[in-house]
Design goal:
By secondary structure, the protein is mainly α. The protein is built from seven helices and no strands.
Length: 142
């Protein structure tokens, strides 16, 4: 969820830069053009990783007791960095395609709903299956 929240920030910041004319000014300079976009993505990935570290630091006093080896933690950090990197490029694409800052901030919003609705639908399916197999339901009385 923390990585997906970077979608809105990246797309909005990209759209602000595009509508504000910053990219047009940089195009007149001798700057490698993809470096502007790459800098936006890398800064967003860094923000996402710091946000994940803050979430983890808050979870520790609340009772999280991790028991992974250092190698496994390195794998987790690498995986989260890759997911953040991919989602930030997606946010950049939303920001470049948006006509206004408002549409850039609303474009990635369905990405938040996908995971929570998937989780809720699977809970609902489990409840339906449990009710269908329970001897105390109206379906079994028929």
């Amino acid at each position: 969820m923390t990585a997906a929240s970077q979608l809105i920030g990246t797309s909005t910041a990209t759209s602000v830069d595009m509508t504000g004319g910053i990219y047009n000014r940089l195009r007149t300079m001798a700057v490698y053009r993809p470096s502007i976009l790459l800098a936006r993505v890398l800064s967003s990935v860094a923000q996402a990783l710091v946000s994940m570290a803050v979430v983890f630091a808050i979870a520790l006093p609340m009772g999280l007791s991790p028991n992974a080896t250092p190698l496994r933690w390195l794998v987790v950090v690498g995986f989260l960095a890759h997911v953040s990197f991919a989602l930030c490029w997606l946010g950049l694409a939303f920001g470049l395609a948006a006509k206004s800052v408002a549409s850039a901030s609303n474009g990635p919003s369905p990405w938040f709903c996908c995971r929570s609705s998937d989780r809720e639908s699977s809970r609902l399916d489990r409840c339906r299956r449990a009710c269908a197999t329970s001897p105390n339901t109206s379906r079994s009385r028929r």
